[in-house]
Write the structure tokens for this entry.
Amino acid sequence: MALIVLAADKGSPGVTTAAVALAAVWPRRALLAETDPAGGDLVYRSAAAHGGMLNPNTGMLSIAATARRGLVPDQLWDHVQPLSGGLEVLVGLGIAEQAAGLAGLWPTLGSAFAQLADSPNAPADVIADCGRISGDTPVVELFPHAALVLLISRTEPEAIARVRDRAAALSTKLHGGPRGAGSLGTPLIGVVLIADPNNSGKLVNQVNDMLVHAQTGARVVGTLAEDPAGAEQLAGRKRGRLDKSMLIRSARKVTSDLYQQYGAAWSVPSQVHSQQSHVQGQGPHQPPMQGQSGHAGGHPGHAGAGR
């Protein structure tokens, strides 16, 4: 299993919506971590399993004190809260100013997130919502520990240009320089496009050509449907059969493709890796489905935010 990080360059491409959608349909047990230094959204928009509000002090804020003394991966679960449908989340910071408390701890967190996959007690993949990043964003220190970095982008020309440039910058930072399509580095940098399903195939080819030409070492790994109604259902703001939404159907396709291509590599213990480099009809606060206790197959997970 693995640490998967999601991020964007600027604007509001829907990183949190993408992270929640992918975590909700993830084939194995998933822990959704809100690691955006600017703060998280779930505490404001989601109900806890007990029916009340999530505790804003239990999550990234509370884990800082533990991490300063060293962090064993299984200790992450002490700071996790289950949402009303079962998806397990590490609630993000309340405001950006609280990020100072995590200064110097991002590599420790990244290591723990990656090694949680190998826990003998409660293994899980971690899907980290890193929000918008720039060259000096501290959360980028998580990225070397990831198996996959997913850059979320819409398809306007300026958005595609930004994701190309951000992929190139990350390739330099993580891999040491530009890379051709035949020289993919670790962690793999992937792009997920938020696109009209009727036009996604052509766009994928165009964006891949751009990424290859710029020697980013990145490529498009999937598309999520641009589905405002589905995003509203996922956020608990609108009723409907979320499992029938284009958003969730496309999220299932993305996760299936990722596991088909990379699942075998993710089965390798994370220490070895590092050395080598449901959805049901719902109303407000009713989540989509993850697997049984996070595994493939049957119980609701969560409808999250739409940042």
Notes: The chain has nine helices and ten strands.
